[in-house]
Amino acid sequence: MSAPETFESENGKAGRAAGFFRSRWQGTAPLDRLFWRDLVLVGTAINIAVSVLALILLGLKLPLALVLAVHFAPVPYNFFLTFAVWRTAEKSGGVKASLMTLGAVLWLMLVVVI
């Protein structure tokens, strides 16, 4: 497994992060890894952790605007992951890709509502 491609002018973590997002957006990351690891495992873990943090902040009686900002902070990342799965599945084709697209959309609805 090779490291993600980085921009020539970037070093370290910033370059790896850019490579991570670029590979997912361009559909070059493997669909199975994108769906199962990035979306289902990591995406769900991030949403659970942020929701717990928002509940803690609510319990500490911090301003509701702050609590809501924390709670909805991962929404752009959730949309990114869902559209990345969608774009990658379009390139892959097949029933499995279609099911992963459907799963990603259902996952998005679930994490945005909860």
Automatic annotation (TrEMBL):
Keywords, comma-separated and alphabetical: Membrane, Transmembrane, Transmembrane helix
TM stretches of this protein: 39-58, 64-86, 93-113
Protein name as annotated: GtrA family protein
Lineage: Bacteria, Pseudomonadati, Pseudomonadota, Alphaproteobacteria, Hyphomicrobiales
